[in-house]
Amino acid sequence: MLNIATTTAVSSQGELPVPAVPGVAQASSAPPAAPVAPRQASAEELKRISDDLQQRASAVAPELRFAVDSSSGRTVIQITDQSTDKVIRQIPSEEALQISEDMDRFQKGLLLNRKA
Question: CB neighbours of 8 closer than 8 A, spacing ≥ 6?
Fold first, then answer.
């Protein structure tokens, strides 16, 4: 049985010292870097990516369709019935796209009301 005893004291700055552990890199006391916001893809990039996905998937899963919704600019994935070409499932659904569009319009209205 291994018995390890450690003692720590609070420094005048209110931080606990961290004992060094052999073979383990020590964390820097510098403040963490600000998070980087993800870059939004342009409409042309989304169209190019969805066309590329469609081309790659058509050989393996022809029932999958990748597209970009024209009103919201969001990527849409559809699963279709091969014989009837009917959409069986869509992600995000038409309802979710409509709700997102309605919320955007609502938020823009609130912004306009605040400026007036």
Answer: 16, 17, 19
